[in-house]
Design brief:
Helix content: over 70%
CATH class of the largest domain: Mainly Alpha
Number of domains: 2
CATH topology of the largest domain: Four Helix Bundle (Hemerythrin (Met), subunit A)
Number of strands: 3
Oligomer: single chain
Order of helices and strands: HEHHEEHHHHHHH
Strand order of the largest sheet: 1-3-2
Largest sheet: 3 strands, antiparallel
Strand content: under 5%
Distance between the termini: 27 Å
């Protein structure tokens, strides 16, 4: 874990959220890899946080699926078996395809313009190999797309399961093929909003999820066999 200089007034109310946000980024971007064990004492020292803040941050990340709390032993970064990855992605496929089917087509110009602007940022992040910006713009693109269906509870559920798959996706997002295909498929989704059907959009959403799932499953069996 990276050593941090604790900011002033670290024990102020709500400090747990700052700790949780920082830990989330450490997990998403691979600084805390799957199965890594972390303790409340480490978090308290690293962040200058109270025990309550460390414990509350663990609770939040356990709820979002990024950490697994261990009784009296802190927590560990969640890892997945191949079967668990398949189950998680089945849920994501179901939710995201349903959200795509809810979008009224042809989509309004305002939505198309907004997605084009986000995708332009995503393209720049891909060109610069800026992994942080890639994650942020990718998530913003999909959240904007799915909220266009009007069911915000569904969009929130999609976001929750996307969080849980972060430790899977980080293994794949650094691949050049992912960056290229992600940009191309986002552009295809935007095109389908004005020139396609909901069935075509839902199918593309399904195809968009497959590469990271298959990459992680193959990696799991490769590591298991080694």
């Amino acid at each position: 874990m990276l050593k941090r200089t604790p900011p002033k007034k670290t024990r102020a109310p709500g400090n747990w959220k700052r700790v949780a946000d920082a830990l989330q980024k450490d997990i998403i971007f691979g600084r805390l890899p799957p199965t890594k064990h972390v303790t409340e004492e480490e978090i308290m020292e690293s962040f200058g946080a109270s025990r309550h803040a460390a414990r509350r941050a663990f609770e939040e990340l356990d709820r979002s699926g990024l950490l697994v709390r261990l009784p009296n032993r802190g927590a560990r970064v969640r890892s997945y078996t191949a079967a668990e990855v398949a189950d998680l992605y089945e849920i994501r496929e179901t939710l995201e395809m349903r959200a795509a089917m809810r979008i009224r087509l042809p989509a309004p110009a305002e939505l198309v313009d907004r997605l084009n602007a986000i995708e332009a940022e995503h393209q720049r992040a891909a060109d610069r190999k800026n992994i942080v910006a890639l994650f942020e713009t990718n998530d913003r693109f999909h959240d904007t797309l799915y909220r266009a269906g009007g069911n915000y509870a569904l969009a929130d559920a999609i976001r929750l399961f996307a969080w849980q798959s972060y430790v899977i996706r980080i293994r794949f997002i650094t691949e050049e093929s992912w960056r290229r295909n992600s940009v191309n498929q986002h552009k295809q989704m935007i095109r389908l909003l004005t020139q396609g059907t909901n069935q075509e959009l839902a199918q593309l959403v399904y195809e968009h999820l497959q590469p990271s799932k298959q990459f992680y499953i193959q990696l799991y069996y490769k590591l298991k066999a080694s």
